[in-house]
Amino acid sequence: MESLFPVVVFLAIATLGAALARRLGLLAPIVLVVLGLALSFVPGFPQVELDPELVLVGILPPLLYVAALETSVPAFKNNIRPILLLAVGLVLFTAFVVGFVLHLLLPQLPFAICLALGAVVAPPDAVAATAVARRVGLPRRVVTILEGESLINDATALVLLRVATLATIGSAVGTAEVAVEVLRATGGGILIGALGALVFGFLHRRISDPLLDNALSLIIPFAVVFTAEHVHASGVVAVVVTGLVLGHKLPQLLSAASRLQVGAFWRLVRFLLEGLVFLLVGLQLREVLRDLDEPVGSLAMTTFAVLAAVFLTRFVWLFPATYLARLVPRVRRRDVRPSPKFPIIIGWAGMRGVVTLAAALALPLTLAHDEPYPRALFIWLAFAVIVFTLVGQGATLPLVARRLKLPQDDPVQDALSAAGVQQQASRAAQERLDELADSAPEAVVARLRRASEDRTNMAWERLGGAERETPSQAYGRLRQEMIDAERDVFRAARDAGRIPEEVLVQAYRDLDLEESLLREVEK
Question: Where does the chain cross the membrane (predicted)?
Fold first, then answer.
């Protein structure tokens, strides 16, 4: 009971913080981190010491899985070059630069432990990138690149961290050992992820109950991670591969009812976990400061140097990676030269999060031969990077995006494409209806034909201006009033004892489904 109470308190605060952020028009991750920082010094407020295993195996997998499920595989493949340049190249570049800077400031420490901290602070956070980028309203391609980067870069950083840690504690690490470690982590993760997609895709096809589909969906990320970790492969890579494959095939794997329920379930899980994660990051401040005993001047200089290295390396890497690649004729033909605004906004969106903190807490307690090192300083540096990038860059990202005036995705073109495909879909539906028309009354066939035509008309209506109410909007407005009137009648009948509760529940369910459809149409 006592151990459950803080969890409930944290979830309640995370929910209230997210609601406050929406009310104020701010980004929820920023508000929750600042709230956590403030609450960490409130006397008597429950404190929690983050377990890195809990984060990396308990919290990160479901968040990565749902992010991968919602990632467009065609868009991911079309942007695989910039994604890999960021998720692999930039992570390695940042880790080595931060490692060299820290080693210059603390030459008494082995380079391996400095490189380990570089690996800790190198990867932008998947949760932060997804939560902030979409809310800011960045162009679709920028969001795809940021999300793709954040899905893969944790694997790169964690593999490098594992190698650097082995060297730190005195294990022999040569070229062969590094190659084996990378192959086992990455190759094993891809293999297990593909196997997970095959097995769980097969199970999804055989399940028709939405509740069972939902339960299986919750099990998948943990089953994949546990299997990968058991063979020392990358659980991050495995979960991402499984999520990408299943997400791409989800329309064929799940029934309509299962898709609706699974989608609603994961929206709730992501909302609660994201809120909890950002709040817990802020709450760690008091614990981080507790063991810190560095001189203020030295601490400030080291912190500034690491922050500058993390911030600047992203831009130093991005501009050559963006423009030098286009010296290759094949790349230049496939991808036009972008405006400098795009690498600037992608560079500014490099927020770190809970993975960085969990990785810092997983740093070894001592070096080889039990030699001590300033571990508390390393954890502080990781925490400072999180706060600086998440609060500083994250809070100013909307302002930077507005100042850059990035070209937005054309909603008219989106609506035109959707209307064209909808017309093809309606034509296919009517052809199928014509084949089956003899098996149903003429009035039923006519009603279905009108419904198909209405869907096509609705798609084309979205191309009109917003200054007048379209027929579909008028229909939605009037039908909403009718639904409210129907609910009042059913509720009064239940209260008067004319119908049992079960009839009311079923009637409300039908009306709720119709209202949900109306609201989706209005978007």
Answer: 54-76, 83-103, 109-134, 182-203, 262-283, 303-324, 345-365, 377-400
Cα angle 185, 215, 148; round to 5 = 40
Residues 6+ apart with CB under 8 A from 15: 272, 275
C-alpha–C-alpha distance, residues 336 and 279, integer Å: 41
Distance CA 405, CA 125 (A): 25
In degrees rounded to 5, what are phi and psi of residue 183?
-65, -45
Please report how the helices 296-323 and 375-387 are oriented relative to each other, as an axis angle in degrees rounded to 10. 50
* Single-letter amino acid, residue 310: V
Cα distances from 488 to residues 228, 242, 482, 501, 507, in angstroms, run: 54, 46, 10, 14, 11
Burial of 277 (0-12, 13-18, 19+ CB in 10 A): buried
Structure tokens at 131: 């939560």
The two tokens of residue 125 are 């956070």
Backbone torsions φ then ψ of 398, nearest 5 degrees: -60, -40
Residue 12: which residues within 8 A CB-CB, separation 6 or more? none
- Inter-residue contact 37 to 387 (CB < 8 Å): yes
Residues 110 and 112: their CA atoms lie apart, in Å, by 5
* DSSP H or E stretch at residue 294: none
Tens digit of pLDDT for each residue in 317-366? 999 998 888 888 887 777 778 889 999 999 998 889 888 988 998 888 88
Which candidate, 64, 86, 66, places its Cα nearest to that of 146? Answer: 86
Task: Tell me the per-residue pLDDT of 390-444, one tens digit each, with 9 for 90 and over.
Answer: 888 888 888 888 888 888 776 667 777 777 787 888 888 888 888 888 888 888 8
Q: Which structure tokens are listed for 44?
A: 């008597």
Q: How far is CA 382 from CA 76, 243, 326, 385, in A?
A: 29, 29, 35, 5
Report the 10 Å Cβ neighbour count for 25: 7
Residues 185 and 189: their CA atoms lie apart, in Å, by 6
Q: Which of 353, 387, 413, 393 is nearest to 154 (CA)?
A: 353
Eight-state DSSP code of residue 327: G
Cα–Cα distance for residue pair 386/50, rounded to 1 Å: 15
Residue in the structure block whose two tokens are 């899985």 = 65
Q: How far apart are CA 356 and CA 120, in angstroms?
A: 5
Angle 31-33-39 (CA atoms, 0-180°, nearest 5)?
Answer: 100
Residue 495: count other Cβ atoms within 10 Å of its Cβ. 10
What is the 8-class DSSP label of residue 88?
I
| Three-state DSSP string of 10-44 | HHHHHHHHHHHHHHHCCCHHHHHHHHHHHHCCCCC
**What mean pLDDT do residues 270-291 have?**
86
Distance between CA atoms of 393 and 400, rounded to whole angstroms? 9
